[in-house]
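Quick start: what a row looks like.
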Amino acid sequence: MDPTIYFTLLLFLLPLYLILRRKTSKQLPPGSFGLPIIGHSLSFLRAMHTDTVEQWFQRRIKKYGPIYKLSLFGTPGVFIHGQAANKFIYTCDSDTVVPHQPPSFKMICGERNILELNGEEHKRIRGALMSFLKPEVLKQYVGKMDEEIRKHLEIHWHGKQKIKVMPSMKTLTFNIMSSLLFGIEQGASRDALIELIQQISNGSVSLPINIPFTCFHRGLRARAKFRTMIMDLIKQRRAALTNETALPQQDLITCLLNIQNNDNSIILSDEEIVNNVIVLMIAGHDTSSILITFLVRLLATDPTVYATISKEQEEIAKSKASGELLTWNDLAKMKYTWRVALETLRIYPPVYGAFKKVLKDFEYEGHTIPKGWQIVLASCMAHMDEQIFPDPSKFDPTRFENQASIPPFSFVAFGGGPRTCPGYEFARIETLTTMHYLVTKFTWKLSCLDNFTRNPVPNFKQGLPIEIQPK
């Protein structure tokens, strides 16, 4: 062949080769996709189950650096963590990155829920939920929550010598939500609802195999029954609003039905109410009960923290007349108790991270993250960053004496930015009111050293059994 042709081809191919080589070197982060299809899923789930997921991530950080590729649940992805990563994800535009829940979650909870939506749709749903969950509205429910907690302790704690804390707190938080969110009081309806919610919760994080006897199949059936119950409640509340026999904010469903756009059109459809009620029940049922369980364990093992919380709560109790319910102002005095709760969430976050989906290629820290990948955000690894929280393994509630001093997106137990958990204040009231009555009415000690696993949220193997005595 004519040497001129070789030279011409070389001139043409060399720039292309250099471009491709440069693109390849920048295109993907370092790392490995692991085994075909399976990827790293099995070892990741094992780490979650043994609560060693941070160590699992750290081993790969040591090998590949702070950003690396991996494959989980059949999808290629990139791992990121830290304050800057949290800020990027929580504030990223919805044209680039969107939430990415497991298929089973979307199929059981519905596509029109707050965790699936983004942009204006997310803003609309969040705004509707916040119309009930904002502090100025929740103030009026402190007394009702107080009554539910007293009733629970009277039935399930008084007169007992041993308690399994985690199942007891799950029952309590479920009862509180049933009463405040749906107006369902104790009885057959509430008993049926708790079993359905448990099946829905289990099914939403299972393999989406719809055959009899699987968690997913049971979850789908439970969702259908739950939907029927909530639809019946919606009809009842709508009729009560029409007949003016219901207060606009007597419970969440009534509140959602009552809010309208400026043109008097509805904000949420009935199906959107059902979907978001399911998500709120799952989230609220798990997160608050987990936090309270860890607080009970902490107070059994740290006499200094117990003594300080006890003093704070006893002073509030002494200021109340016999049988008088707690108020919003009483909760405002529980500053140390809430700092202890926040420090507990820093070390033991109920949700460790999040998955996101990439809608279009983008550059991040010198790497190209391709469309279709998932982002594995280990958001709570920022909680153990010694540059932000010195001596991070040490339990130190004073870190939260001045929350303004904590850099944004460093403490993300309740999310961040526009995706901050709308139930933050609800969880705070629930936790503080419960701890007030536990500390002022009982003393306790651990029955055994009960370890916990993550599946995907913390769960104590034996339910955290304790021995209790009335004060």
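That is the whole record. The longest strand covers residues 75-81. Residues 16 and 127 are 51 Å apart (CA to CA).
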